[in-house]
Design brief:
Arc Repressor Mutant, subunit A; alpha+beta; 6 strands; elongated; single chain; Aspartate Aminotransferase, domain 1
């Protein structure tokens, strides 16, 4: 193995360590952390890592957190959705998943932010108040949603990483994933 190859594999190993292990409250690493550890060509190393881990059903996901590319957070996540049989083992009740799906869909439908009272009103049509309050608090703690000023709810970091927003909206709108690009274009607007 050539010296350059060993250097690249060493950087891939270091990038993997940074992305897999939690260093602060959130897993993954920011662009500036990767740049400091891997050098200026950190994006190239991340692309190579993504190619390698896709072979085992994982992928690197980028979540922008501002205008500066170095503030982007990188995470390692499952590639695609897990089979339904495996999803049952994640410890979620079906009604809790429904509350999360409706909450995220409502926030997405309101351009990424919605008043907490409106979300609670929509959910109260199908779920008891105590269950709504408990789940919303839990989703905030888990990072699926975040609460800002004036009781506005936003998508949390975890929703940005773990939830395929286009697929969620497609499923809720009753569209098939295999439809034309025109349908996908409508979701982007």
């Amino acid at each position: 193995m050539a010296e350059g190859d060993r250097d690249v594999w060493g950087k891939l190993a270091r990038a993997t360590q940074l992305l897999f292990y939690r260093r602060h409250r959130q897993p993954g690493a920011r662009g500036w952390e990767l740049k400091r550890a891997l050098g200026r060509n950190y994006l190239e190393i991340i692309r190579l890592l993504d190619q390698e881990i896709q072979k085992i059903g994982l992928q690197v996901k980028e979540v922008p957190e501002g205008d500066d590319p170095e503030s982007t957070r990188f995470h390692i996540v499952l590639k695609g959705s897990p089979p339904l049989a495996e999803a049952r083992t994640f410890g979620w009740r079906i009604d809790d998943m429904a509350i999360l799906a409706v909450t995220l869909a409502y926030i997405l439908s309101k351009q990424g932010k919605a008043p907490a009272k409106e979300v609670e009103r929509v959910l109260s049509e199908k779920f008891p108040k105590w269950k709504i309050e408990r789940n919303l608090d839990r989703f905030i703690r888990m990072g699926y949603i975040s609460k800002g000023e004036k009781d506005l709810l936003y998508l949390g970091w975890r929703s940005m990483v773990e939830v395929d927003q286009k697929t969620l909206l497609s499923l809720l709108l009753g569209r098939d994933r295999g439809e034309s690009k025109d349908a996908e274009g409508e979701l982007d607007r």
